[in-house]
Design brief:
heterotrimer, A alpha+beta (662), B mainly alpha (226), C alpha+beta (250), A: FAD/NAD(P)-binding domain, Flavocytochrome C3, Chain A, domain 1, Methane Monooxygenase Hydroxylase, Chain G, domain 1, 3 domains, 18 helices, globular, C: 250 residues, alpha+beta, Ubiquitin-like (UB roll), Fumarate Reductase Iron-sulfur Protein, Chain B, domain 2, 2 domains, five-stranded mixed sheet, two-stranded antiparallel sheet, 9 helices
């Protein structure tokens, strides 16, 4: 059996990172100039890594799929970024942030990584402020904080509801500076297609120029992928349209293990799906749950009337409303963690209490808050979100709808959970190196820090930690013995062959066996998404997962035999590029389903209906599943990958059951 | 410093400074004309005082230079800006209600103003300052400003031309005045709306002032005394 | 209530940067609760099913923050809705039977790549010229050592909300990128940590903007009116101030 070395340094958890840095190998400045690093992706992790590595003196090649690095989907993060600054004097510390993150992750994250993350969190805030990120401030000029789910302290730094945007623009500005300095070369509208291996090490990539349609070869001493998560496997998600898992899957096919793919985060407050033409889901900030109350009708006949459009939410009086989160979780109420809130919504809708025509929505109601605080205060807090909601749905949640027995009822919002973030990803060791030598993975793309569930405001923290403060150190430990390796020629046979393989794969996609009577990429992707959401979504069962795996086989067959892609391989062809991504989404779907099927427990974002308590809460099985599930590619997409286990070792934290009831 | 006028903002700075000088000149011109509204002889005295003295000539030269720069740069900027727009134009362009019409049509307005200026110079400057310099003699004397006012504004077509000219000038300044301040950086979030209001007032006063003079002379109400 | 809506889309089609383009008309049926871009998706699905090439247009996050979407719709960048990007535009803004003209951004700085897709790399180049604070990773002092008055921080934040979509230059009759440049210069000039390089930044960014062929600002305020993030032209005044101050010292 293959064993796994996570390279966790010796010593107590609080000293591991310091020890590591003190003893790691470094590359001297003269040698850095001779070393090339490819960074794929320009989100928080990719841009910050490319900028930092360039600044250190390495020669960096940075790729992004959009027209500018600033478009990466990190930009859409709203809430904030956590750090253990304790500026609020509320008892925060590195240890507490570490503890909350591990607990929030349902005890499935690697201790040493999370501790390091908490440790560097403070440097991130310092760095971003120095870059000119306009974080919210108090009147005294100091930084402001807000509280977020899963923590008892206020440690979240924010820039209005656009924290991700501001942090990304900060990293993008640092990157721009390096591009101007000539240390980073930027390739926009390029998509990575394969990792090129030379003598068992990652030595370059094949990337497609999306404008000319040509595959190009790039060589480097190390390859870093920072290409985000795989949420779009589900077709509908809060991810951007171009988000895909092809780079990660390419790495996986080259021998990088894929870890914990079944840990998928479902965000409870998204605008419900309205029809089959919808292209993506819009997230409404989690902050709405601070004042909004979530409910469905108590009576099934009311729910029926709502579904048939005969009644509106405001027609149902207070006594007939079931505030199910407050009922089930008195201590946390509407502020339970994301996975708990999402499952509770699904449970109600499964029982037939959904409130829109699809039966897949619950109400988020501000009547109580408006009656208590007045519409002005509520609008001040959530006005922009109300406007956004109105623009999309044509319903204004701040509008008085009805008065029953002297109680004022306002239009409620409708929300439903949606795929949002993926905790699983490419397996990496403590140095963020994958199981392929010379290949690194950072940001959402790797699996490292969030365990089975990610807390709010931690994604930005992890992306920037990896890119600014971790990878630039750890990659040197790998590169230190590469200084004698001269630059590679992209004319080497490995590169030429890899390019040829990409071109062949492209021709295969353009075969169009059924001509234009075949199915479009989106049609098949929607089928895939439907299967994934239905059987590999919020509530999973053994039978459902087995069915999903069968269905995925069928979809792959359909993809091979019925796909229709218009156009040619010359020039820009978006449909062709989407077809490439879909092929990998199908493989990803199988990975998620296989992992979910094998993990006979419920934890964080993975909920197996067979494994729940009598009250319907997740039941972990630490006895048998206290490990990272890593999947190793077996040479063909049709073969079930091999499972390799990385046991989790907890030294600092005592593993407990998560409890948000009291 | 040297390259400042080769930059886009520098070129705008020239428009801004010359434009503001021209507005100042208009205010000065208007206040002189108001003398004519009250007393013809007093106005003639002013005209005589400003006749062909070195300071009046120097002032005229500076003014002419200002005009010239303002006009030349207006064309330079327009050519550059059209080029920046690219070779293919939009097929459909909707007007945004928040965009003042005048701000989009400064060149057209400027050309009307220029045409009006030509007329005005032919009417007055040619018969007054130039006549004095060249030694030309007319029925009405070179320093008899009031006489010329009465002569031209008794003709209805001339009055109509002048009023059209003033309207163009009015629109030109409504945008031009605050725009000039914006260009030199004298604006911020608080003052942005105030400056636009002030601009409208300045333009309005200039328009109304000149219009009153012309109409007053057309109706033979001016000069009020003597 | 959600209703069906059938519109005629008059869309700019252009094979690539070198080819000559032209308008083509398509009929498409959508619903009032469907977004404009989803309506284009519907049309594209239809085109694919007929074996035709779908319309190329830029889009990504579809929630109004990445700045990737563009399109000049019925004479407005990002369409008729105010303070919204194209991806936040819904079909209920249009009438049944209406003809909607869809064009790419038109500006010398934004050459067309294909159909309604343009190259906005010029904005990246302007950023590279000076849209940053030179600080080394890991060399920053404690964040709270820099005190910034709340009003200043808020104003900097308002400028920083720019999404770099290019609507300002697309809306401007002069093809000027001043609103974009001023937003970044303003954000950093307002903050003490950005003041250090303020003069150098303003000069470098304006020089690059001029070099790339963008026009001169004539203060029409069209950019501000069409900006999906409502960036104020007060920022342009600040840029002018910063630039002139810097130049006068040279």
């Amino acid at each position: 059996m293959t064993t796994i070395d996570s390279k966790i340094p010796e010593g107590p958890v609080a000293e591991k990172w310091t020890n590591y840095k003190a003893h790691q190998r470094l590359v001297n400045p003269a040698n850095k100039r001779k070393l090339d690093i490819i960074v794929v992706g320009t989100g928080l992790a990719g841009a910050s890594a490319a900028a930092s590595l360039g600044e250190m003196g390495f020669r960096v090649l940075n790729f992004c799929i959009q027209d500018s690095p600033r478009r990466a989907h990190s930009i859409a993060a709203q809430g904030g970024i956590n750090a253990a600054k304790n500026y609020q004097n509320d008892g925060d510390s590195v240890y507490r942030l570490f503890y909350d993150t591990v607990k929030g992750g349902d005890y499935r994250a690697r201790e040493a990584n999370v501790y390091r993350l908490a440790e560097v969190s403070n440097n991130i805030i310092d760095q971003c402020v120095a870059q000119g990120v306009p974080f919210a401030r108090e009147y005294g000029g100091t930084l402001a904080n807000r509280s977020f789910g899963g923590a008892q302290v206020s440690r979240t730094f924010y820039a209005k509801g656009q924290t991700g945007q501001q942090l990304l623009l900060g990293a993008y500005s640092a990157l721009s500076r390096q591009v101007a300095a000539g240390t980073v070369k930027l390739y926009t509208r390029y998509e990575m297609h394969d990792v090129v291996m030379v003598d068992g090490r990652a030595r370059g990539i094949i990337a497609k120029n999306l404008v000319t349609g040509k595959f190009e070869r790039f060589a480097a001493h190390a390859v870093v992928i920072a290409t985000g998560g795989y949420g779009n496997t589900y077709f509908l998600s809060t991810n951007a349209m171009a988000c895909n898992c092809s780079a990660a899957i390419a790495a996986y096919r080259k021998g990088a293990y894929f870890a914990n793919p079944s840990y998928v985060q479902i965000h409870p407050t998204c605008i419900p799906v309205h029809g089959d033409k919808q292209s993506k889901l819009t997230l409404m900030s989690e902050s709405l749950r601070n004042d909004g109350r979530i409910w469905v009708p108590k009576k099934i006949e009311d729910a029926k009337a709502l579904q048939e459009g005969k009644k509106k939410g405001s027609d149902i009086p207070e006594e007939d409303r079931d505030y199910y989160l407050e009922r089930r979780y008195p201590a946390f109420g509407n502020l339970v963690p994301r996975d708990v809130a999402s499952r509770a919504a699904k449970e109600r809708c499964d029982k037939g209490f959904g409130v829109n025509n699809t039966g897949l929505a619950v109400f988020l109601d501000f009547s109580e808050a408006i009656n208590r605080l007045g519409i002005d205060v509520v609008r001040q807090r959530y006005g922009n979100l109300f406007d956004m909601y109105e623009e999309i749905t044509d319903v204004n949640p701040g509008e008085l709808a009805k008065e029953i027995n002297g109680v004022k009822y306002y239009n409620p919002m409708m929300i439903f959970p949606a795929i949002h973030y993926t905790m699983g990803g490419i397996w990496v060791d403590y140095e963020l190196q994958t199981s392929v030598k010379g290949l690194f993975a950072i940001g959402e793309c790797n699996f490292s820090d969030h365990g089975a569930n990610r807390l709010g405001a931690s994604a930005l923290m992890q992306g920037l930690a990896d890119g600014y403060f971790v990878l630039p150190y750890t990659i040197q430990n790998y590169l230190a013995d590469q200084i004698t390796v001269p630059r590679f020629s992209t004319d080497a046979p490995e590169f030429v062959e890899a390019q040829k393989a990409c071109e062949e794969a492209q021709r295969a996609l353009l075969r169009n066996p059924k001509g234009k009577d075949g199915k479009s990429v989106d049609t098949i992707h929607k089928e895939l998404g439907h299967i994934m959401w239905e059987y590999v979504g919020m509530g999973r069962t053994e039978a459902g997962l087995k069915k999903a795996l069968e269905e995925l086989k069928r979809i792959r067959k359909e993809f091979n035999e019925e796909l229709f892609v218009p156009g040619t391989e010359e020039g820009m062809n978006n449909e062709l590029d989407k077809a490439f991504r879909l092929k990998d989404f199908i493989t990803m779907g199988e990975l998620i389903a296989n992992d979910a099927l094998h993990r006979e427990e419920s934890c964080g974002g993975h909920f197996r209906e067979e494994h729940q308590t009598e009250e319907g809460e997740a039941k972990r099985n630490d006895q048998d599943f206290f490990y990272v599930g890593c999947w190793n590619y077996k040479g063909s997409d049709d073969e079930t990958p091999e499972l390799i286990k990385e046991p989790l070792v907890y030294e600092a934290i005592k593993v407990q059951t998560r409890n948000y009831k009291n | 410093m040297s390259s400042i006028f080769q930059s886009s903002i520098g070129r705008k700075l020239i428009m801004s400074i010359t434009g503001m000088c021209l507005v100042l000149f208009l205010i000065f011109h208007l206040s002189m004309n108001f003398v004519a509204a009250f007393s013809g002889s007093a106005y003639n005295a002013v005209c005589g005082f400003l006749g062909t003295n070195w300071y009046a000539l120097a002032g005229t030269a500076v003014l002419a230079l200002g005009f010239l720069l303002h006009i030349i740069y207006a064309f330079i900027l327009t050519v550059r800006n059209r080029k920046a727009r690219g070779s293919v134009r939009y097929a459909v362009e909707a007007r945004n209600s928040k965009v003042e019409w005048s701000s989009q049509n400064m060149l057209v307005l400027g050309i009307i103003v220029l045409a009006g200026l030509g007329l005005h110079l032919a009417h007055f400057w040619y018969h007054m300052m130039w006549a004095e310099l060249a030694g030309n003699e007319y029925e009405i004397g070179a320093t008899d400003g009031t006489g010329w006012l009465q002569y031209y504004f008794s003709q209805i077509p001339v009055v109509i031309c002048y009023l059209v000219w003033f309207v163009a000038l009015w629109l030109h300044i409504t945008h031009g005045f605050w725009s000039a301040l914006q260009t030199i950086g004298a604006n911020n979030l608080v003052w942005i709306d105030r400056l636009q209001k002030i601009s409208a007032w300045v333009a309005g006063i200039i328009f109304a002032g000149f219009a009153v003079i012309v109409i007053g002379f057309a109706l033979k109400v001016f000069p009020l005394f003597d | 209530m959600e209703k069906n809506i059938t519109v005629t889309l008059r869309v700019w089609r252009q094979k690539d940067a070198k080819s000559k383009g032209g308008f083509k008309e398509y009929q498409v049926t959508s619903t009032t609760d469907t977004s404009f871009l989803e309506t284009l998706d519907i049309l594209n699905e239809d085109l694919v099913s007929k074996g035709e090439e779908p319309i190329a247009f830029d889009h990504d996050c579809r929630e109004g923050i990445c700045g990737m979407c563009s399109l000049y719709i019925n004479g407005h960048p990002h369409g008729p809705a105010t303070k919204a990007t194209t991806c936040q535009l819904y079909m209920r803004r249009f009438k049944d039977g209406e003809t909607i003209t869809v064009e790419p951004w038109r500006s010398a700085g934004f050459p067309v790549i294909k159909d309604c897709m343009v190259d906005r790399g010029a904005y990246d180049k302007i950023m590279q010229a000076g849209g940053f604070i030179s600080v080394r990773t890991g060399s920053a002092e404690d964040a709270n050592n820099i005190l910034i008055p709340k009003e200043k921080a808020d104003e900097a934040m308002d400028a920083a909300t720019c999404i770099g979509c290019g609507a300002c230059a697309a809306a401007c009759k002069n093809g000027s990128a001043m609103l974009f440049v001023s937003a970044k210069v303003s954000q950093l000039a307002l903050l003490p940590q950005g003041r250090v390089e303020a003069a150098r930044r303003a000069k470098a960014m304006v020089a690059k903007m001029d070099e790339l062929g963008f026009g001169n600002c004539t203060n029409t305020r069209a950019c501000e009116a069409e900006c999906p993030k409502g960036i104020s032209i007060a920022n342009i005044a600040r840029l002018n101030r910063e630039f002139l101050k810097a130049k006068l010292k040279d």
